[in-house]
User: Fold Glyoxalase from Roseateles depolymerans.
Amino acid sequence: MDVFKTHGAFSWSELMTSAPDQAAEFYGSLFGWKLESMPMPGGASGELYRVAKVAETAVGGLFKTPDGAPMPPQWMTYVTVQDVDATAAKAVELGGKILMPVTDIPTVGRMATVQDPQGAVLNIITYSPRMS
Assistant:
């Protein structure tokens, strides 16, 4: 199963943190991850995104919490969907909320952040063909 193409599959996890260098050192040492830095896709100039790899397989990432963001450091999970726009609309129909509207992430895909009726938060994403 290709988690980047399979509707409903958990496909990515990433850490949003106020201290990305320290987090990279901690998780790299804890799990043996190799962390590769790249420019933050669609992000501010100079911001880095660190891709965590096990062997040569990318398994997640971490980045600096955007300035002024009202949330604490946290791990975020992504679920692959065939159509992020339709899935976001369905989440609202089912009583959920959209916390971050559908957004294009250059070279990655389209994503949104939804909250279920009980308050749990999850990211949904349709990957670009180049990613999957």
